[in-house]
């Protein structure tokens, strides 16, 4: 839609983007972001830290931004009560969050990516199903094969197990078991 809007223009402006990085990021994620920057003509501002302070910094640099596209889905943590267009919560910088894939399921995302040959981060082919930093992200144990290797993320069939390779999710489940 963006490129169609500018199809008769002499110059297409780059799409503004924010990349909030984790401490100790995967080099494969950083490489994928660089590839996307070129492929999709993105103007990426990279800010390390957590989302709220990063968003504050970003909006100080880009005060004309009024809305952001977010890849949250309904079954993601804190995604259950969101709507397609949701203003930020109280105490956050005021901006409209747009959730274009909110009601898509894990398997639908993979079907879309694979059927249209949309490039994705190589880590998903190595058994990762949810990416954070090297400090809190592991291959999903549900994808481990008997030979010790891992199946790609798109082979995961139970979307409730998507975040089983994330340390904070593992810890929450261990706490529930202990109770």
Automatic annotation (TrEMBL):
Q: What is its EC number?
A: 2.7.7.2
User: Domain Phosphoadenosine phosphosulphate reductase, which positions?
Assistant: 26-137
Catalytic activity as recorded in UniProt: FMN + ATP + H(+) = FAD + diphosphate
Q: Which UniProt keywords apply?
A: ATP-binding, FAD, Flavoprotein, FMN, Hydrolase, Nucleotide-binding, Nucleotidyltransferase, Transferase
InterPro entries noted in UniProt? PAPS_reduct_dom, Rossmann-like_a/b/a_fold
Q: GO biological process annotations for this chain's record?
A: FAD biosynthetic process
In terms of SUPFAM superfamilies, this protein maps to:
Adenine nucleotide alpha hydrolases-like (SSF52402)
Q: Name one Pfam family in it.
A: PAPS_reduct
Q: Which GO terms describe its molecular function?
A: ATP binding; FMN adenylyltransferase activity; hydrolase activity
Is the Flavoprotein keyword given for this protein? yes
Q: In which pathway does it act?
A: Cofactor biosynthesis; FAD biosynthesis; FAD from FMN: step 1/1
Q: Where is the signal peptide?
A: none
Domain of life assignment: Eukaryota
Keyword Flavoprotein included in the entry's annotation: yes
Quote the protein name from its UniProt record.
FAD synthase
Q: Which organism is this entry from? A: Rhizophagus irregularis
Q: What is the lineage of its organism?
A: Eukaryota, Fungi, Fungi incertae sedis, Mucoromycota, Glomeromycotina
């Amino acid at each position: 839609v963006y490129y169609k809007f500018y199809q008769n223009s002499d110059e297409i402006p780059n799409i503004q983007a924010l990349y909030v990085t984790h401490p100790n990021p995967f080099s494969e994620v950083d490489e994928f972001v660089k590839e996307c920057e070129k492929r999709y003509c993105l103007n990426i501002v990279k800010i390390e830290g957590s989302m709220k302070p990063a968003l504050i910094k970003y909006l100080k640099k880009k005060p004309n931004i009024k809305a952001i596209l977010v890849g949250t889905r309904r079954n993601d943590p804190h995604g259950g009560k969101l709507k397609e267009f949701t203003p930020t919560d109280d105490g956050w910088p005021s901006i409209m969050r747009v959730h274009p894939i909110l009601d898509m399921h894990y398997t639908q995302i993979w079907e879309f990516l694979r059927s249209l040959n949309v490039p994705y981060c190589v880590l998903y082919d190595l058994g990762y199903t949810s990416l954070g930093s090297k400090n809190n992200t592991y291959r999903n144990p549900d994808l481990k094969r008997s030979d010790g290797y891992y199946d790609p993320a798109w082979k995961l069939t139970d979307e409730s197990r998507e975040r089983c390779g994330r340390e904070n999710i593992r810890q929450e489940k261990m706490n529930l078991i202990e109770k």
